[in-house]
C-alpha cells in the first residue's frame, strides 16, 4: 500500500476543509452541533411522550397544562382539590376518634370477641343484598357458610410454604387447580395435558401473575423489552396495576356498541412490542362476554399472548353451557388463549382470598416463578 499517496490525499482534504470552514465564525462552529443535539433531544422527548400517551391524550394534556398557565386558574383548581380532600378527611375524623391508635396498655383478653361482635353489628345488612360483594347466599352462620367457617378454622394455622409439614394443604391446592382447569378445557385433546396453574389470593393477584409471566415469556421468546398490552375499556382495573407494577405500556381500547371488546380496533394497536391482549368472560362492569374466539385468532396470528379474564364467569359459564344456554367459546378449547384468571372466591363460593391462575403450558408458567440465588430468599 502506498502510504505517502494516502497521506497527501488526507492533507489536501484537510486543507480544503479548513479553507471552507474558515468562512464561518468559530463560535458558530461550536454552537451549531450543540444546538442540533439539543433540538434532536427535544424532538425525541416530544415523540416518545406522544407515543406513550397517544396523540389525543398528548394534545389534551398539553391543552390542560397551557390552561393552568393562565393566572388564577391553577390557584382555583388547587383550592377546589383541597376542598374535596378536606371534606373526605372531616367525614372520617369524628368516627375515628374512638379507634385504637396504639397497642392498649392492658390486653383485652376475652373482651376481644365481645368487641368484635359489637363492631360487626354496625356493618350494613348484606345478606342476599350485595351483588358483586358477597357471592354466597344465606347468613354467615348457616348452610354453606358454616362449612366454610369450620374448614377455615381447621387450617388457620397452616403455612403452605412448608410443603413437608402441611402436605394436606399442598394437595388441596393441586386439586382445586386441577378441578378448575378441568372445567375450562384441560381435558381437551389438543391441550396435551400441559395446562397448569396456581392458587392466589384473589383475581387481582391471578391477573398480576399472568401479566408478569406473559411479559417475561414474550421477552424470552421474541426479545421484547419495551412491552405493551392492549385491553378493552371494560377490563378490570387490575390490568392498570399490572401495567404500572411491571412497566408495561397499556392501551385501553373503546368497546363496540354492544359493549364488547372491539377486535378490529384492538388489531390497530398491535405492534412489535405487543406482548398481550385481554378479553373478559364476562367483564365486571356490564356482565358481557367478549368475542373470545376472534380475540384468540388475532393473538395466534400475531404470536402474542392472550389472557381470558374468567374471574367472574369461570364457575358460571361451564355450568350454564351444560344447562343448555348458548354460551360462546371462552376456555382453553379456543386456540390462542395462553392464560386465565378464575375466582374461586366469587361463584366458586369459597371464602375471600382465593383465586386460580391457569396457563396453557409449563413454558409460560415457568416465568411466573422468581428464582433466588442466595440463602436469604429462604427466610
Ligand atoms: C372480580 C374481578 C376481578 C378482580 O378480582 P379481585 O378478586 O377483586 O381481585 C378481575 N376481573 C373481573 C372480570 C372480576 O370480576
TrEMBL record:
It comes from Kalanchoe fedtschenkoi (Lavender scallops). InterPro entries: GrpII_AminoAcid_Decarb (IPR050477), PyrdxlP-dep_de-COase (IPR002129), PyrdxlP-dep_Trfase (IPR015424), PyrdxlP-dep_Trfase_major (IPR015421). Signal peptide: none annotated. This is sphinganine-1-phosphate aldolase. Pathway: Sphingolipid metabolism; Lipid metabolism; sphingolipid metabolism. It is found in: Endoplasmic reticulum membrane. Its EC number is 4.1.2.27. Belongs to the group II decarboxylase family. Sphingosine-1-phosphate lyase subfamily. Keywords: Endoplasmic reticulum, Lipid metabolism, Lyase, Membrane, Pyridoxal phosphate, Sphingolipid metabolism, Transmembrane, Transmembrane helix. The modification N6-(pyridoxal phosphate)lysine is found at residue 346. The lineage of its organism: Eukaryota, Viridiplantae, Streptophyta, Embryophyta, Tracheophyta. The keyword Transmembrane applies. GO terms for molecular function: pyridoxal phosphate binding; sphinganine-1-phosphate aldolase activity. One of its GO terms (biological process) is sphingolipid catabolic process. One of its GO terms (cellular component) is endoplasmic reticulum membrane. SUPFAM superfamilies: PLP-dependent transferases. It is a single-pass membrane protein.
Amino acid at each position: 500500500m502506498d502510504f505517502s499517496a494516502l497521506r497527501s490525499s488526507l492533507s489536501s482534504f484537510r486543507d480544503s476543509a479548513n479553507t471552507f470552514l474558515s468562512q464561518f465564525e468559530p463560535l458558530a462552529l461550536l454552537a451549531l452541533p450543540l444546538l442540533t443535539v439539543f433540538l434532536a433531544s427535544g424532538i425525541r422527548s416530544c415523540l416518545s411522550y406522544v407515543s406513550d400517551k397517544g396523540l389525543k391524550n398528548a394534545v389534551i394534556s398539553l391543552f390542560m397544562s397551557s390552561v393552568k398557565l393562565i393566572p388564577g386558574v391553577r390557584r382555583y383548581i388547587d383550592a377546589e382539590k383541597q376542598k374535596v380532600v378536606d371534606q373526605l378527611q372531616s367525614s372520617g375524623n369524628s368516627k375515628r376518634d374512638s379507634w385504637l391508635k396504639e397497642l392498649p396498655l392492658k390486653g383485652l383478653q376475652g373482651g376481644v370477641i365481645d368487641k368484635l361482635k359489637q363492631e360487626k353489628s354496625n356493618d350494613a345488612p348484606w345478606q342476599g343484598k350485595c351483588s358483586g360483594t358477597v357471592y354466597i347466599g344465606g347468613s354467615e352462620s348457616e348452610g354453606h357458610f358454616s362449612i366454610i367457617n369450620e374448614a377455615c378454622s381447621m387450617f388457620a394455622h397452616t403455612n403452605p410454604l412448608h410443603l413437608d409439614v402441611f402436605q394436606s394443604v399442598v394437595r388441596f391446592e393441586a386439586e382445586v387447580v386441577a378441578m378448575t382447569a378441568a372445567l375450562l378445557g384441560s381435558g381437551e385433546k389438543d391441550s396435551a395435558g400441559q395446562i397448569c396453574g396456581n392458587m392466589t389470593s384473589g383475581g387481582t393477584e391471578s391477573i398480576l401473575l399472568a401479566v408478569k409471566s406473559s411479559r417475561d415469556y414474550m421477552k424470552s421468546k421474541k426479545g421484547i423489552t419495551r412491552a405493551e398490552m392492549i385491553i378493552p375499556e371494560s377490563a378490570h382495573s387490575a390490568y392498570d396495576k399490572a401495567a404500572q407494577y411491571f412497566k408495561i405500556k397499556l392501551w385501553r381500547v373503546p368497546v363496540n356498541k354492544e359493549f364488547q371488546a372491539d377486535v378490529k380496533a384492538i388489531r390497530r394497536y398491535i405492534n412489535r412490542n405487543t406482548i398481550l391482549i385481554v378479553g373478559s368472560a364476562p367483564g365486571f362492569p356490564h356482565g358481557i362476554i367478549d368475542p373470545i374466539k376472534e380475540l384468540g385468532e388475532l393473538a395466534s396470528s400475531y404470536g402474542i399472548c392472550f389472557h381470558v379474564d374468567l374471574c367472574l364467569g369461570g364457575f358460571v359459564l361451564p355450568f350454564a353451557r351444560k344447562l343448555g344456554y348458548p354460551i360462546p367459546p371462552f376456555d382453553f378449547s379456543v386456540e390462542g388463549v395462553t392464560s386465565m384468571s378464575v375466582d374461586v372466591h366469587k361463584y366458586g363460593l369459597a371464602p375471600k382470598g382465593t383465586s386460580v391462575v391457569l396457563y396453557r403450558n409449563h413454558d409460560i408458567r415457568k416465568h411466573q416463578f422468581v428464582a433466588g440465588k442466595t440463602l436469604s430468599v429462604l427466610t
